[in-house]
Amino acid sequence: MKVALxxxxxxxxxxxxxxxxxxxxxxxxxxxxxxxxxxLGFDAYGVGERHGAPFLSSSPPVVLTAIAAQTSRIRLLTxxxxxxxxxxxxxxEDYATLDHLSGGRLEMIIxxxxxxxxxxxxxxxxxxxxxxxxxxxxxxxRLWSEEKVTWxxxxxxxxxxxxxxxxxxxxxxxxxxxxxxxxxxxxxxxxFGEPIFSSNSFHPQAKYKALIDHYRERLAHYGHDPARAVVxxxxxxxxxxSTAEEAIRRYRPYYSAFSVTESAKHNKSPFTSLEDVIANGxxxxxxxxxxxxxxxxxxxxxxxQVLSISVDGLTExxxxxxxxxxxxxxxxxxxxxxxxxxxxxxPVWSHENKAAIHRIH
Length: 361
Known about the structure:
Keywords: Monooxygenase, Oxidoreductase. InterPro entries: Bact_Lucif_Oxidored, Luciferase-like_dom, Luciferase-like_sf. One of its GO terms (cellular component) is cytosol. GO terms for molecular function: monooxygenase activity; oxidoreductase activity, acting on paired donors, with incorporation or reduction of molecular oxygen. The protein is built from 13 helices and twelve strands. The two termini are 30 Å apart. It has a single domain, classed as TIM Barrel (Alpha-Beta Barrel), CATH 3.20.20. Helix 2 (60-70) runs parallel beside helix 3 (88-101) and helix 6 (183-192) packs parallel to helix 7. By secondary structure, the protein is α/β, with parallel strands linked by helices. The protein is 47% helix and 14% strand. The model is unreliable at 349-361 (pLDDT under 50). Strand 7, helix 6 (183-192) and strand 8 (196-198) form a beta-alpha-beta unit. It is globular, with a radius of gyration of 20 Å. It has an eight-stranded parallel beta barrel, surrounded by six helices. A two-stranded antiparallel ribbon has the order 5-6.
């Protein structure tokens, strides 16, 4: 199994210490997270997209470019790019630029997003979100794969013989489809035969498994081999302790703080307590053995090859502690027990380029 660390860059006062970070301190923290993740052997780092407090992640390509300058191996993900509200021409240009600056390490996860504030901000209604996402994605694919594109649609002015520059660094920038709540996302992914990434964050396993099963069924409908389906999945919160009791005790203040945020309320999680979300949801809170057991259980249900985790909201020392423990106690077992066919090849930069980067830093 491959493992990605990700951040939505939620910047709240720390639930334990009361410490508040400035925006610049949070940006620096995210870059340090990514550098540490690469050093510890994680496979990817992702930055989500939100447009409003308490999130600072309104511009993932800019943040990922800063991370690209400080790293040389780790894959760079968007978790997710809210394509339902963005201009595909601008997206094609920005992310192709990032693809070059990272040496071909970019993988995009697209979605409609789950923060209702961005619809009014960018001029579409919530009812239009799926239609908008599908139209914009079809245009983005053409802009990256074709030159002199002529196009007309509903959500941006027509194009006449347009070629976007730069062209992507990779022959084809990999695109995943973020899946959280609707078969419309899995349907779009299946049409193109492209991978999905289940959010797997706020609800019981059965809800997300149903969407993944639907994806595999629709892959077959569109003539793709469901046995070759590529699936990623999130995991809720992460907190490892020497015992389950220690992990629960140390994480409880964070759970209490996160559960009353507006974003948590919007997701309408059915879980009523920390113990409930640990027992019946995706949260990875407990001893290393318990966390490994839960991940293997979810893998049996989902068949996913990539797992994403997050340590946002913790103190920086706790972030480092948790990532170190995960890398030492959990990651080796996952890589041994769960085979993965993706990300086996180096990005397009040569080893000479990597050596040059190392000398610079």
